[in-house]
Amino acid sequence: MLSFKIFFQNRKFFAPAFLYSCFSLIFSTWVTYIPFIADKLQITEGKIGGALFFTSLGSLSMLPISNRMVDRIGVGRQAFIGFLLYSTAVYGMFLAPTYTTLCMALYGFGISSSVFAISVNSLTATIEKQAGRNIMTGSHGFWSMGGIIGSATGSFIAGLLKMPVLHISILITILISLQLWLRKEYFHIRSDHFENKKHGKFPIKPLLAIASISLIMMVSEGAIADWSALYLKKVVVMRGQFLGLGYSLFSVGMTLGRFAGDTLSHRFGSWKLLRMAIGTSLAGFALVLLKLPATTLTGFFIIGLGFSIIVPEVYRLASRIKGIRTADGVSFISATANIGFLTGPVVLGFIAELHTLHLSFMVLMGLVTTAFVMSLWRK
């Protein structure tokens, strides 16, 4: 847990890391309300999946632009602007009166998500290099901390207030106020714009190998985030006040794993640690598929432990590829991971509509198994 102390000993590390918490606090609050929005608009799992697909489209549409913005306006400024865009875009889903407007709102949410995700990970990688300290895995731990708080309190506050717009407004007001105070620590940071220009050709093959594993794992993570509440409701048949527990326990596992990730990476090496992590997550999926309340919740926790180091580790691997700028490598992985995170719920929704949500989670386990096999091909 040494990396946890580093952030609270130095505000220049804490300020950008807290952006991850802001990201996940907003996201986990939104996903808690997916069942509410589905009931409000009277839409099925398949239609929810179709709507969520527009989030992916929005994210994809920003890929050619987001990385250029990092160079043009500075990675620190873009991270803050991305946070503001993301914070305001979330209102669209809560205010959408029809299925069509929900799709439009999710498209805008995907645009803001892409800008924010690429910029905040590029910012962290740049700080790592400039400060000579590993903070990527720990920074992602702050995402998990936000997920714990958002999902654990989200359903409780939702039931208490019964006013979704007020709930999200209070949260966003608090987070924007905190970031206005903290932004001076990172706002003027710029990425290594001129690094490795002499190498010419972009080394796409090494990045694709890493990105493929990242894509598969983030498909699964995105699906768990968006569908865990409905899985507990419809498959495990748990009561409403406990529907946020699945994602909350998943986030607890993510947090514990991520604050130990840098030490484990140093001890075992990146590829061996990835294989260990993916294997752990497969054990968790086996428990989730048993459909019993206790084992399912335990399974979500174990999946979180396994998933915890995968994305930070692939960011680190991408940033160390020779002949590529730090910002370019991280942006490529960030874009790929973001697409996977947003595409997973869409695929799960269509499978759930055609068959069952339980089968959807079986498909997820198959995808994670594929990622494990792919990791064996690397040293």
Walk me through what this model shows.
With 379 residues, the protein is mainly α. It has one domain (2-190, 202-376): Growth Hormone, Chain: A (Up-down Bundle). The protein is built from 17 helices and no strands. The protein has helices at residues 2-9, 11-32, 34-41, 45-73, 75-89, 91-95, 99-131, 136-161, 164-182, 204-234, 245-258, 261-268, 270-288, 293-307, 310-319, 326-354, 357-376. Helix 2 (11-32) runs antiparallel to helix 7, helix 2 runs antiparallel to helix 9 and helix 5 runs antiparallel to helix 7 (99-131). It is globular. The two termini are 28 Å apart.
Uncertain residue ranges = 194-199
CATH superfamily descriptor: MFS general substrate transporter like domains
Mean pLDDT across the residues is: 83
CATH architectural type? Up-down Bundle
SSE topology string: HHHHHHHHHHHHHHHHH
Largest sheet: none
Overall helicity: over 70%
Oligomer: single chain
Q: Any idea what the radius of gyration is?
A: 19 Å
The assigned structural class equals mainly alpha
The outline comes out as globular
CATH class: Mainly Alpha
How many helices? The count is 17
Span between termini: 28 Å
Please report the total strand number as a whole number.
Answer: 0
Q: Domain count, please report it.
A: 1
Percentage of residues in strands? under 5%
Remind me, CATH topology? Growth Hormone, Chain: A
